[in-house]
Design brief:
single chain, 6 helices, elongated, Cytochrome Bc1 Complex, Chain D, domain 2
């Protein structure tokens, strides 16, 4: 009888530890992408988009518009790789200055997108390398 009770407790504890390990792995992956993305942002994006993603007046758009980022989530890797030309509207303001291409590897693109999507007031979650590669294959 005691064996069955201890076995059930052990089974429950194992299940809890397994679930916790899965959550921790996801959290570790997010933190890795985010911290690497922060460094990439500092090296490649911050000069134009600002320390706090505020952009530059009417010339360079801010990265604080979660709605724009969410609606264009599948295009962000293409914007980073190929640059962006033409008018875009963020938060009711038009921007028409070209963004230069930045030939980052797909992993670097995924990391910096994860950083941008979760900084400056944004909370849009992880963009994986698989998602970035898929998006880059569809670039025009």
């Amino acid at each position: 009888m005691k064996f069955k009770k201890n076995g059930a407790i052990l089974c429950c504890l194992s299940a809890i530890l397994f679930i916790a390990a899965c959550e921790n792995q996801e959290s570790v992956e997010f933190k890795r992408y985010y911290s690497n993305g922060s460094l990439i942002y500092q090296q490649h994006c911050q000069n134009c988009h600002g320390t706090n993603g505020e952009g530059l007046s009417a010339l360079i758009p801010p990265l604080t518009d979660s709605v724009y980022l969410k609606n264009n989530r599948n295009s962000l890797a293409c914007y980073i790789r190929n640059g962006l030309k033409g008018k875009i509207t963020l938060d009711g303001k038009e921007f028409d200055d070209a963004m230069p291409a930045n030939n980052l590897a797909p992993m670097e693109a995924a990391e910096v997108i994860t950083y941008i999507q979760n900084s400056f007031g944004n909370k849009l979650g992880l963009t994986t390398i698989d998602q970035a590669e898929s998006d880059l294959e569809k670039c025009k």
